[in-house]
Amino acid sequence: MASAPKNVLVGVCSVKFGTTELGWTSDGVMMTVRTDITGIKVEEIGGIIRRELIDQGIGVTLNMAEGTLINMSQAIPGSSLAGQTLTLGGSALQAGALVLVGKNPEGFARTITLTDVNPIGEVGIPYRKAEISIVPVTFEANVTTTDGTFGTIVDSTV
């Protein structure tokens, strides 16, 4: 049984994937935390006696406001960039830390760091006259094998 997703809207923020600064988002970030649980029952008692966590996942969906080749090479799964040529497919899946810095409700910096993520899914890049090319991307977090965590969310107080 899956619980309802919990969503954290960060707002416009800066994005860093691995060692690459991806610039700013155009309209915020949606981070979704998925939690699957199971109910434990025993024959002697009717009903669930406790719930156990069986799976978790974290996804981040954002629209990068800067449609550069570098950004597209990070957003399109399995792509690679050499000089001014972006090759679509044929490469290993990109992996690295994802760092998002935006504002918390008090107006101070909120930093979300996911230790290890991969870009996943479809990337549709519009090319329209006199418009900014927004690069949509979804990242899925991988759990850290040493401690079972995905990352951290830290609010600054100044």
Description:
The mean pLDDT is 87. The chain has one helix at residues 69-75, and strands at 6-9, 14-17, 20-42, 45-64, 80-82, 85-87, 96-103, 109-120, 135-141, 151-155. The chain has one domain (9-31, 60-155). The strands form 2 sheets. A 6-stranded antiparallel barrel has the order 2-3-4-9-8-7. By secondary structure, it is mainly beta. 4% of the residues lie in helices and 56% in strands. The N and C termini lie far apart (41 Å). The chain contains 1 helix and 10 strands, in the order ββββαββββββ.
Could you name the key traits of this structure?
158 residues, mainly beta, six-stranded antiparallel β-barrel, two-stranded antiparallel sheet, 10 strands
How are the SSEs placed, and which strands pair?
Layout: E1 6-9, E2 14-17, E3 20-42, E4 45-64, H1 69-75, E5 80-82, E6 85-87, E7 96-103, E8 109-120, E9 135-141, E10 151-155
Antiparallel strand pairs: 1-3, 2-3, 2-7, 3-4, 4-9, 5-6, 7-8, 8-9, 8-10
Strand content: over 45%
- Radius of gyration (Å): 19 Å
What profile does the largest beta sheet have? 6 strands, antiparallel, barrel
Query: Please, what is the average pLDDT?
Result: 87
Count of distinct strands:
10
Question: What does this entry show, briefly?
Answer:
This protein has one helix at residues 69-75, and strands spanning 6-9, 14-17, 20-42, 45-64, 80-82, 85-87, 96-103, 109-120, 135-141, 151-155.
